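Appendix B, example 12.
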Amino acid sequence: MYRSFLSWRYLVSRPTNLIGIVGILVGVGALILILSIMTGFLDMTRSTVRGTLSDLVVEPRQGERGAGGMVSGDPGALLAALRNEPRVAAAAPQLLWGGIITQRGREAKNYERLLASQSHSSLLAIQLVGIDVNGLARLAWPGQWLAARALGGRLSPAEIEDELGATAFLHSLVGDVPGKDWTLAAPNPLFPFVPPPQRGPGRPKAGVLVGEQLYTDLGLAVGDVLQLATAVFDPARDDWRMNNREYVVSGTFKTRDNETDSGRLYFDRRELADFLGDTRTYTQVLVRLADYERDAAALAPELRTRFAELGLIAAGERFGEGAYELKTWEEFRGFLLGAIENERVLMGIMLSLVLVVAGFTIFAILSMMVTEKRRDIGILAALGATPRGIQQLFLMIAFWDALLGGVLGAVLGTWGALEIDSIERWLSHTFGVQIFNRDVYLFDYIPSVVQPLWVATIVLGAFLCALVFAAIPAWRAARLDPLAALRYE
């Protein structure tokens, strides 16, 4: 009983103990706040990349010879094999190619300035993406389609080769919150490539979807004509040649991924294949699984083996036994996700040093307290207090430091993580400094995810840190000889 009473009295009677409490409070609160924000950024990035890539990405090396023969340039056999797999919910082919925006006439001078600009020249080098959107099939059975998407079940064969079934690209066309920060959404997401009425005479031009950020940066408007150029290989000439074509801006998309929204144009896949001279009809197939968390780890290597035997991918040592041709979306974006995960770990390690500093502070305070309380320790020992009891007395002082600092830090850190977006907006408005640039990340808010297990682990770590650093002063107090302590009293 005396241990609890005296430890609390020693704590409140010495204001210097407040330094240790504040140190633990700052360390715990900062760890919870930063790790919650980094976890939110990681989850937001994972969600964004998952929406544009689907669960699995298959990139067969077309024209290469594998164990099952020559890999075909027709996606039909690959889609049929995926359709027969019960763990696959949907799949869709994509055609990816590189290109550049070129303009003539009055627009040429503006584009010359962009090409000569170090910071804006990258806007004109874009990725051309051809996709399939089977709007007619959905109009035939809209109730079935909506029910399947709502329940997360398998979609019908009529749309299994459709982009909107295999990925979350539909959200990029209509937005999570329609009208919010949206310049020009596609008028009809089921027919996104239908061009607006033609302004002048001439051959009708196909429609193209432009990324929201690229649309804004280039100052485009609906109905504007984009002149595109790309290089394609001509087997007849055994050489590369340039193809040029004009397209009409029919709308925008917004994935909230900076790289995608500023560097992509979406086409109807058949139109893009025609633009490339029908040298390729697809480059990859995106696959959505019925249950990604349950099936992805086991299904990916199984499909690699099966597709290699069927000749759908080249596989072999040259292509990592199919690992380069068939990946989960996490493997495909491993560098990006790994970088954010590494940042979270490094931030956690660096902020943990704050707790170490707080532990050193507690060590210094208790060391001085043991020296100053020699008389009290001698009297306690003379009255019958055991060395173990004296040691526990000083350990309890560190316990109170950790309890007060840890609990207050957990409360403030959790509150700060939950309200970080409102706090940032208030600080930016009050001091006139933009702390979080939403144009860079294209997030509407600062994401944060508070994980109760992490909070408990951080608080427990604060307790362990305080007790470890308090152990040496407490041990010194327990070994103090009462005769030596009272000799000069």
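The CA atoms of residues 260 and 455 lie 35 Å apart. The radius of gyration is 32 Å.
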